[in-house]
Each structure stands twice: as C-alpha cells, then as structure tokens.
Amino acid sequence: MSVATTSVPVSGGTLYVTTISDHNDVVAATQSFVPSSAGGAERFLMLTRALSIAGIALTATPGAGAFGITRTDGTSLVLTGEATSGAANKTDQAIWEVNLSDSYVAGRDIALTVNCNTVGTVITAASTTLTPTAYSQSDGVETALTVSAAQQIPATATDLIFTITGTGLTPGMSIVVVLTMLVTTSSGAAHGVINSVALTM
Predict the structure, then answer these.
(1) Most buried residue among 16, 17, 28, 66 by CB atoms closer than 10 A?
(2) What is the pTM of this model?
(3) Domain spans of the chain?
C-alpha cells in the first residue's frame, strides 16, 4: 500500500487530501482544511436575512430604528437607514444569527468586514459612526463578546474592518452580530447604507 498527501491552496487556507492506494486502486481518502495565519474563509451574511434589533424581519422601508431592504432588480441590494431632517440624528440597527463553521479554529479572532457609506450633505463626521457588538448564544442565553471600537462612516463605499475576539468560541457555536449605525447632520438630510457584511473565521 502507498500513502500520498497533496495540498491545494483555497480561499482562506490550504486543503490537504490524503489517499491510500493498493496496487493503483484507491482504498481510502481523507481531507482537512487548515486556515491561513491571516484567518479562515470569508463568509458573507445575507442582507435579506438581517433582522431588526427585536428579531423581526426587515421591510423595504426603514423606520423606528430599523434598516430597510432596498433593492433595484439587476442593479443594487443594500440596507438603507432612516433619513435625518435638519439638525438631527438617526440610529438604526440590524442583527444576524450565525453558526461558526466546522473549519473554525477554536479561540481564533474573527474579522468582521462591513462595506458602508453615507448619502446626503452637511454630515457631522465625528458623530456618524458604525458600532458593532456580538454575543455568543447557547440555550437561549446571550453572552457579550469583545469587539473592536466604533468607526466613522465614510462618504464613499469603504470596507470597515472590526475584530471579534475569539476567546471561548468553538466550531459550530451560534453567535449574534449586531450593527448600530448613527448618522448625524447639522442641516439638510442624510442616511447611511450598508452594502455588505462578511465574517472571516
């Protein structure tokens, strides 16, 4: 019998395939995935699966602290926040519940990448921010995870990258990701937009 292992670079790491052969006949094969030092595979969260902070499905119209799902067939799909009016601010939130993949390495930090921007004028940049929070969830009980600090939302679509500390996390565990967008204007009208959300684990 002979044993051979081949490696194949894939997104987020390397796939190893080991085969056991007997006179050129494969009698067994196994495979394993090893994440790269930069992290595992990137997993995009579906915008249409985002929920309000109360866990209720979003509608096409933003309102009462919740984003709206804005879609133009064949052109765009984004989450749109409420519009300010004059010297005011609006805060909108969205949540996702996600199961960590089987290939997730226990305790590894998770990168949260949010592509977002503002639309409008006379925006107070220092008070226009995206704040992520995250929780592990087991048997109906949520436990807060450590997440990096809020960042200012840019005027043009940009990736904002946050870190969810992986202490205590294990493969298959359920986590809840919450995004809170604050948009502040001194006059005029503006709103925030989330274009994509991804986890690298």
Answers:
(1) 66
(2) 0.82
(3) 2-35, 42-200
